[in-house]
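Thread: quick sanity check before group meeting

JM: Hey all, I'm pulling together slides for Thursday and realized we never actually wrote out the predicted structure for the chain we discussed last week. Dropping the sequence here so it's in one place. If anyone has concerns about the input, flag it before I start.
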Amino acid sequence: MSNITKIWEFIIDNRTASVITLLSFILAIITLLAKKRPIIEQPIIKPIVKVVKKIKKVISPTADDWFKYGEKAQKQNKPDKALKNYNKAVELKPDFFNAYLHIGTIYIEKHKYFEAKKNFQKAIDNTTSDAEINMYYLFLGIFVFPYVKDFDEAIRCLENGINFFNKEFENAQKEIEDLQKKQELNDREKDTLDLLLQKIQKAATLLIEAYYHRGMIYQNYKDYDKALKCFMEVINYDKNYAEAYYQIGIIYCFYIPDYDKSVEYLKKYIELKKDNEKAYSILGLLYSEEPELDNLIIGENQIADKNIDNKIITSFRQAKKLNANNTEAIRYLEKSIELKRDYAMAYFYLGNIYHYKQDYIAAIFNFRKAIEFGYYAAYEKLGKAYYKNANSNEDYDKALEYLNKFIEYSDGWGNEFIGEIYAYIGSVYYQKSKYYSIVYYDSAIAYFQKAIELKTKMIDDVYFCMGLAFIYKSTLNENIAIGIKHIQQAAESGLIEAQQYLKDNENLVLKASEVDIAKDKNIIFSL
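JM (edit): ok, ran it. Output follows.
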């Protein structure tokens, strides 16, 4: 930085009376020197004269000068300095609408949205141009009201801007068509055509942003039909607006289930923007054959949404099943991880697919990765994978460790689901009892009882396994009787394995009934 530049910056930042007095003195000397042409033409004097011209401006800058200083500071990423200069501009010129606009944008960057709103409103109040007024409405609708959670006002402002610029676009388009019908244009008509093309481009740019942000607000309101229409309008104006394709793909995936459309729009998105790991991950979900991953797509949030009919959910499941392809699912999920090595959910989805394919070693690897990167809900599936792949007592202990770990992180999962985890823990103890030591049967029974208390969906299987645990834990007739009762309860609910067991073990059923008769006799005798 030259010394002259340093002096210049000092002058701009320190406009005190003493500085102005000093500059006035220097200006007087230069004026005297200027009368003697040979002196002023000397090389040493020329730069001083240039500085003096700038000094004149600094001594009494206009509103436009302050505005330019503000723009320069803003470009240099000095927002506080820019704000100071813009405020000086509006002090001198209270109707300086462009300065209010720049002040508003700085306050948005500072996340001071009410200040931004105030200055945008001043910009609107100080211009008579309909185009500028509606552009400021768009700024309010896009950058201010959504951040202060006033979505109704945001939509109102966006609609004002959209209505205006739609008309601007249509009128300009019609004028362009009329000019293009002529065989030859004169110079004036050519200039008019250029201006119209600029106008239509500006209107299209503003409409694209307005429709996109209105779509995002409707999505926030869960009005997915209106959100879809907005995103479709974006694509209508710009076929390469990647984010609109992404949002449409998300809506068709999670909210208005349509497998084919979701895949279509997400694939278009990754053609345009290849670096979004989440898009690849969702495509992996959509292609997966694993039923539990379906539940992530059309699960609790969607079923709870009254706008979604169960018939739609059923048809979506059928369409997805017809198009499911785990090879494609794995390819997309691996691409997702390639883009983001610590993407926990992609590892989790991969683990689920491998678990479904009964490739438990690969499932365990991916569930471990999901946990490593912070998705602790994967403890549940990791425990189940160890249980299903168990070849040793150590494997069963690993299963117990991770299933219990999941319970530590289980806030918000609901009693029914935790009941399922207890059922699995009971099953692990049951297997340990069968293969390693009968001492674990009591633990198995205790966890099965917890599962029943929490009304697990696996209740028939739990009664059946708990019945077997009672029978196997000892040869006492009383335990056999309790066990048979539990198995009979499962059989009555339609569990085929329980019904078959009772057929194959009629002697135990008879023994259990004898215990019940003996108990009845004891009760009668005591009376």
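AS: nice. The radius of gyration is 38 Å. Residues 187-220 form the longest helix (34 residues).
JM: adding both to the slides.
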